[in-house]
Amino acid sequence: MSAKKSILIINQSAPYGSSNGRESLDLALTCSIFEMPVSLLFVGDGLYQLINNQSPEQLQMKKHEAMLSALPMYDIDQIYVTAEDLSENGLTENDLAMPVTLIQRDVIASLIQQNDSVLTF
Fold first, then answer.
1. How many helical (H) and strand (E) elements, i.e. helices and strands, does the chain have?
2. What is the rounded distance in angstroms from the CA atom of residue 107 to the CA atom of residue 101?
3. CATH of the domain at 60
4. Predicted confidence (pLDDT) per residue in 38-54, tens digit
5. d(CA 81, CA 94)
6. Which of 8, 48, 50, 74 has the smallest number of CB atoms closer than 10 Å to its CB?
């Protein structure tokens, strides 16, 4: 039997301007149910999906925090953010809704190569 195929999901879309953020998290949870190793990378505007205490109700949308908090229960613990994106947006790890692994931008290519499939939202 062959090894499970790994997937990297790159989130680069703002959390509430489209359905991309929610769909990427739905995909991550679904892949995990089928025991696929899942990694998530939040870059650019995708970083805003991880911010604490958001109020999307004004946009008549649901918070992402509930889905984010479910990730560990699905054994999704490889969650990456670039240190540069945090710094450029004036944020720290304390501003995020969950623990992440900080990486440098120049590590992204290596992260992509380590996975069998890469999807970008």
1. 4, 5
2. 12
3. 3.40.1260.10
4. 999 999 999 988 988 76
5. 13
6. 74
**φ and ψ at 37, to 5 degrees?**
-65, 125
Task: Compute the Cα dihedral for 13, 47, 108, 19 and give only its sign.
Answer: negative
Cα 81 from Cα 64, distance rounded (Å): 17
* pLDDT (average), residues 74-84: 96
Going by pLDDT thresholds of 50, 70 and 90, the confidence category of residue 59 is: low
Q: How far apart are CA 10 and CA 18, in angstroms?
A: 15
Q: Report which DSSP code applies to 99.
A: -
Domain count, the chain: 1
Taking the C-alpha atoms of residue 117 and residue 83, their distance in angstroms, rounded to an integer, is 24
How far apart are alpha carbons 1 and 5 in whole angstroms? 12
- Structural domain harbouring 63: 7-120
Judged by phi (left if over 0) then psi (alpha if -120 to 50, else beta), residue 53 lies in left
Check residue 18 and give its pLDDT. Answer: 79
Q: Which two tokens stand for residue 64?
A: 């992402």
